[in-house]
Design brief:
This protein is of the alpha/beta class. The chain contains 13 helices and 25 strands. Helix 1 runs parallel beside helix 2, helix 1 crosses helix 7 and helix 5 packs across helix 6. The protein starts with 12 loop residues before the first strand and ends in a 14-residue tail after the last helix.
């Protein structure tokens, strides 16, 4: 596949979609990403939707960091700007969809994988689970082609086929009743190569033998799919001649003595969008990686970012690190700006109950969280900021998402919430975002491109804290956001 160097925005691309979650599109995406990388192509992976775990696996498969694309989390013009910003650096874009092809926020399918594929003019390859079905697959494929206009359904991959006869009948039926090419058929796998648990795939950090997984997947896919045909489809995606604004306008130089924001990245907390981190550095911050799990002394920091993750799996270690828990309590009282999402919020609570055991957490908020077997909040979130805090102006509207199997028990009546949700569950009764001093924590996950004031104000708050601490004038006062909505 040769690149057309005379076109500024030529970006060969495909979207891997399914009829539902669990159709096999992730396994196909991982295998194709690794195979095309092994062919010498520089592959940029994208994950449609807010998922962190699939995005991390895609990053490992392709050898390049994955970016999330979702027109709910941030508007379509920003989706285009982010996507096309990689066009001159990479040979191929591999976009993994989420849920079913047409599944979105509402009956119109808003923000679906199909909508994203139209925004990016990306050909769609549909992965179909063929368990206990043959000729009916042709009707399903034809229906998908006709269901929404302007969808470029360019190929089909048959998954979970039972044998040669099953594959032959299904393939011939699709070829007879549709004009959609069948790009191959994958057999049933005896075992799921990447086991799942309550929030999706097991994380790469917890699964040993990652290279063996990729090796087994690529063997199966290379033997059963037409890789050249898939690349040909990607290469036929139309070029783009629009000029898009920078995804990070108005870069602030870091200077000689920038504010330092600590980012906890360990086995307990590791859910971060790369663009969120880039947004902070774009505003002049220096980021340092920290851990909650070991006894290493932290450097001086002027802000702290606690992302999501699986604190329940590391609850014993978090409990046992008493010195750090006490240090965080002290820093919060001193006015350190701390922003925490989901798993990070759980760590800032008083305790965490998991599998009938209760573990002590940082204790900044007078709550305990408990893990349940079913989701307690899952989906897109629409929030309005209703209380002063360092990160968002009052009245700001935020689009985000939540996915948590925990909930707070009990929720005190007099607790201060910063978000009112018109969509979503949050901490309690459609409220989310707890505030204490310069701490803001809740179940809400945001993407920096959908809340552009967040990075500006986070770095501003860290700078204020740094200046106050440098002056030796005592604890940092409560910081109010000055950026207007």
């Amino acid at each position: 596949m040769e690149r057309q160097t005379d076109i500024k925005y030529n970006f060969p691309r495909i979207t891997l979609a399914g009829l539902k979650g669990g159709s096999g599109k992730t396994i196909v995406s991982l295998a194709l990403g690794r195979l095309f990388s092994q062919k010498g192509l520089k592959v940029k992976p994208f994950k449609k939707g807010p998922d962190y775990i699939d995005a991390k696996w895609l990053s490992l498969a392709c050898g390049n960091s994955a970016s999330n694309l979702d027109p709910f989390l941030f508007p379509a013009p920003k989706v285009k700007s982010l996507f096309w910003s990689f066009a001159n650096e990479y040979d191929l874009a591999l976009i993994e969809g989420n849920r079913g092809l047409f599944d979105g926020k509402d009956v119109k399918g808003s923000y679906s994988t199909a909508e994203l594929s139209r925004i990016l003019e990306a050909p769609v390859i549909l992965v179909v689970d063929c368990t206990k079905v043959t000729r009916t697959v042709a009707a399903i494929v034809l229906g998908c082609k006709l269901f929404e206009k302007d969808l470029n359904l360019a190929g089909v991959i048959l998954n979970q086929t039972a044998g040669a006869r099953h594959r032959t009948i299904t393939r011939q039926s699709i070829e007879k009743y549709t004009d959609i090419p069948v790009l191959g058929a994958l057999p049933k796998l005896a075992l799921n190569p990447i086991p799942e648990r309550h929030m999706g795939l097991i994380s790469d950090q917890e699964h040993e033998g990652r290279e063996n997984i990729f090796s087994s997947l690529t063997d199966v896919v290379s033997q059963n799919l037409d890789l050249d045909a898939i690349l040909d489809i990607a290469g036929k995606a139309p070029p783009c001649r629009e000029i898009f604004p920078s995804v990070f306008p108005g870069r602030v130089p870091a200077g000689n003595d920038p504010p330092v924001i600590g980012v906890v990245r360990d086995k307990a907390l590791w859910f971060y969008y790369q663009e969120n981190l880039d947004a902070l550095t774009n505003q002049g911050a220096k980021l340092v990686d920290l851990s909650l799990l070991n006894g290493d002394k932290w450097p001086e920091i002027h802000g702290l970012y606690l992302g999501g993750g699986f604190p329940e799996t590391m609850a014993r270690s978090l409990d046992e690190n008493t010195l750090l828990r006490a240090r965080l309590q002290s820093l919060s009282v001193e006015g350190l700006p701390i922003y925490a999402e989901c798993g990070g919020f759980m760590y800032l609570a008083r305790s965490l109950e998991y599998e009938d055991r209760c573990y002590s957490m940082a204790g900044i908020f007078p709550l305990r969280t408990k893990l349940f077997k079913k989701p307690q909040g899952h989906g897109y979130v629409s929030a309005e900021v209703v209380r002063r805090n360092p990160f968002f102006p009052v009245g700001a509207k935020i689009s985000g998402h939540e996915f948590h199997y925990s909930k707070c028990i009990p929720v005190p009546e007099d607790i201060n919430f910063c978000y009112s949700l018109s969509r979503g569950v949050g901490i309690s009764k459609g409220l989310d975002g707890l505030g204490f001093r310069n701490v803001l924590a809740g179940y809400l996950h945001i993407h920096a491109f959908g809340a552009e004031e967040w990075a500006v104000n986070f770095v501003r708050a860290a700078s204020i804290y740094k200046d106050v601490r440098s002056s030796g004038s005592g604890p940092c006062p409560d910081i109010d956001c000055e950026i207007q909505a």
